[in-house]
Amino acid sequence: MLQSNPTLRHILGRAGWYFLTFLVAVTINFLLPRLGDANPIDTIMARSTGNIDQKTAREREEAYLKEFGLIEVDEKGQIVRNPDGSPVKTPLIKQFGSYLVMSLQGDLGTSILQYPKKVSEIIKTALPWTLALQLPTIVLGWIIGNLLGALAAYKRGVFDRVLYPLALLASAVPAFCVGILLVYVFGIRLEWLPAVGGYDEGMVPTLSFDFIASASYYYILPFLSIFLIVVGGQAIGMRSMCIYELGTDYVKYAKLLGIRESKILLYMFRNAMLPQLTGLALALGAMVGGALITEMIFSYPGLGMAVLTAIQGNDYPLITGCTLLVTVCVLVANFSVDILVGFLDPRIRAAQMGGK
Amino acid sequence: MSDAVLEVEDLRVHYLTRFGTRVQAVDGVSFSLKEGEILGIAGESGCGKTTLVSGCMGLYIPPLHHTSGDVRIAGKSIIGMSLEQNRKEVLGRRISMIPQGALNSLNPTRKIKDLATDMILSHDESADKRDIYERLRERFERIGLDAAHVLNAYPVQLPAGTKQRVVIGISTLLNPKVVVADEPTSALDVSTQKAVIRLLFDLMDQGIIASMLFITHELPLLRHVSSRIAVMYAGEIVELGTTEQVIFDPRQPYTKALMGSMLSAEPGQRDRKPVAIEGAPPNLAVPIKGCRFAERCPSVRPDCKETKQVIRLVAGREVRCQYAS
Amino acid sequence: MFRGLLKSPAFVVGAGLFLLTILVALFAPLFMNVDTQTRVGLAYMPPSSEHWLGTDHLGIDMVSLLIAGLRASLHVGFLAGIVATIVGTLIGVYGGYKGGLIDDVLTVATNLFLVIPSLIVLILLSSSLDEGRSLSLIALIIGCTTWTWSARAVRAQSASLRGRDHVSLARINGYGTFGIVTLHILPYLLSYIFMVFILQTATGILSEASISMLGLGPYDSVSLGKILNEAIRNEALTDGAWWAFVPAMVLVTIIAFALYVINTAMEGVFNPRLRK
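ok -> structure tokens follow
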């Protein structure tokens, strides 16, 4: 079956590659935070104040170590000990193994900061907010940015001369700068729009009309921050692509044949879109990163804030849980765009079929 | 002449540069083309042949502008039309070009049949899609292509020779009266070149192409293909005659120099060494008084630079040189 | 070649801006008292003739902080740029020249790191190195996570040079890979690599600003990103103390913008039809 269906082969090939990337990402996620000496247990211990004697402190510490899988435990659940009484530390490989297994089951560990809350719980609350903000914004920004870029390339003249420097500025300004500026100008100085949060304080997230209205209101500034930058970047890129396409031999020939202008524009657009889509796949990682920072600036209750508070509190399980999830999202998005381009670009399709 | 397919009457075409300077790229060109004729156009790069061809096709898109003169195809003038009119009625329909570098001329993301259909629909919106496919199939078979395969293919799937035929096929789809071939074989190997030339002759024999303007810098090709040859220099025609006359018995000094520099290892020519012409063509932004070739002419005389050169009839062909004999 | 650059107004503007910031960073301490330790006033005092940009949340002179931050950020940016360019160029040139399996493996590895968001890797790395975060270490980390773009770009150039005559000749003459790469490929790519370096420096500065803003910045130095982080954490925004964050933001934007402009100008002058 695989032999006869080249599209399937292509998809499976890409899927395989993405799975490999996923494995590398998980490994990185696991290894990097453990490079330093920081011991999360120390943080918890430091937080549990009070004058407790050494023995109770040690018991507690071992209980935590056991819970976080940092020391060996036998079948009966008893701590395995060295000859000198200290618990045997779980080797890194074993930790990685259980980490992998647990992750695939959806268990990303327990948060330290918000102990005893589970990481997956925290993420489950935060993820929808992030998706609601980033997905529409990036998609819309991409579409409109490309349209503007194409228009600028085709029309030139005043439109281009106004758009180009604006877009250049928008794409060069770092993500957080736009966010901070918008917050300051519109949120604090002018007080037109809320500066902080995802919804009115005191409201409880429900699917009520009031809540959605409030959430939408708070959505505007973060949306604009990300949107403007994406539009700027895409417009610049698309404009260059379209200028290039307009100068190609096939456009010249189409004009010589007397083909309608609108048709030629369609050619230009379709052909310029393909590398833009590919470029999107590559830029997604950076876009998402920038969007996360925007979330942090606005204290928007998404993954960005979760990561930020996690960093500030040295909550390693939460940090790694969030980063893993973000990476997975980016990989999924990348994969989708990859498949999409495969379908849309006849050159790729032809190569799959084996051009004669 | 009533049976002339293309008549160019004192055509003058200029460019406007960014700074407002006017470059008179074509300065008074006249010739006519009869049905069944192939006129070869030869000249150095920058002599104005590309501009001339654009002018003949009505492609007056800024910075290119029509100065004066007329171009008539099958008796009807194409000057003075709006660009949209020109696109719909003239381009591809009355006069069509087979471009240089046909290999890149096909939109890589469009199937051949779709491109051809776009072309037909752009000239005749009411055409029926199924009829179009039949027309395409029939025409492509006529020019020796496996229509079913080629029409449904993307350019990337076709070999170079096939693509060249496809381009010829699409360019001549609407049976244009005049076909302009701009170095149509420069990127091809010898056997494919021969096949393409044969195809062009075939199409002329079949009446699909009525006449042809053939631009090339290769002497053997020029000789093999053209019935008449026009030599251009600095925006003017300097010699216009039959192939035999221009190639083997050139009278104008520039033509002589050009033929000398275009020599190939043909029998009888092997002893003569190709001679490059020193110097460069004049700047056409500045009005020129006398002969344009005077600076580089090996037989220049004192008053050549002062007297404007007009076309005379010498030895049965048109020559722009007062001292040619 | 350089004359062509100087003729481009974009280049002059960009290079001028950038040089200005470098000059300020390098020589300002000679002209004024850059003191990031002493409290010279109350928290968040607005700009005055004494302290041109007011004070921060601890009462420290803002101008001093900015200059110190500028130096740090430039330091990190350059170092990160150098590291990223070197790593990326080595991988790119080698893969591009060799082709075949080595190229495929390197490309897969590059794409791997390209897809995984570099911010994520940065966060992971920085968070684990709590107290050891010096400017240079951060620069190293940034360099090691942002090289993927250069690798791709250089690889494409290197691959296109592979088929050139002088390269084939060198191979016939018995030059080894190292020799060919250094003598026959790198010299042609120098201008391109320099452009890559410019962009990587910009990336470095922006990355540092981002990571410091999150609180993962240098442990005991001031950087522009850190200034922003402190401003947000200490509610400079809500207090309306614009001098605590706007100048830092403006500086980062100017530097990044100047570098981008320089790069675009260079692209125009060196005319890479090589781009694809």
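The first strand of chain B starts at residue 4 and ends at 16.
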